[in-house]
Amino acid sequence: QVQLVESGGGLVQAGGSLRLSCAASGSIFSLNAMGWYRQAPGKQRELVATITSRGRADYADSVNADSVKGRFSISRDNAKNTVYLQINSLKPEDTAVYYCNAWAVTSQDKLRPDKPYWGQGTQVTVSS
């Protein structure tokens, strides 16, 4: 199995920054695409950004404009099996539970396709 543990969330004032981290552990044979999703109160979970094992980042349309401005930035450290999400100039509408997602192949299932795994989520609350 693969475990994902997020950290870095919290309560911040509008205009502040946070760096979310998600560390993968367990019987990992290969760790492929990783990403961040978020779920605001009363809304469905939505994609924020993904990154391939080679470092290619893609952002959801809803945040793509913000990524260009530098508000959202996804990155990963393959040596640490960790993916990060940097969020700058936080807004109250960024308030949500942020979930980490990873597609992985376990050591026990090397011949099988990768499967998605999810973390428990980390709460981000932005006060105005």
Task: List the topology elements.
Elements: E1 2-7, E2 10-13, E3 18-26, E4 28-39, E5 46-51, E6 57-59, H1 61-69, E7 72-77, E8 82-87, E9 96-106, E10 115-118, E11 122-127
Parallel strand pairs: 2-11
Antiparallel strand pairs: 1-3, 3-8, 4-5, 4-9, 5-6, 7-8, 9-10, 9-11
Kindly summarize this structure in a few lines.
The chain has 128 residues and is mainly beta. The chain has one helix at 61-69, and strands at 2-7, 10-13, 18-26, 28-39, 46-51, 57-59, 72-77, 82-87, 96-106, 115-118, 122-127.
Overview of the structural elements:
- It is a single chain.
- By secondary structure, the protein is mainly beta.
- It is 7% helix and 57% strand.
- The protein contains 1 helix and 11 strands.
- The strands form 2 sheets. Strands 2, 4, 5, 6, 9, 10 and 11 form a 7-stranded mixed sheet that branches. A 4-stranded antiparallel sheet has the order 1-3-8-7.
Observed structural traits:
single chain, 128 residues, mainly beta, seven-stranded mixed β-sheet, four-stranded antiparallel β-sheet, 57% strand
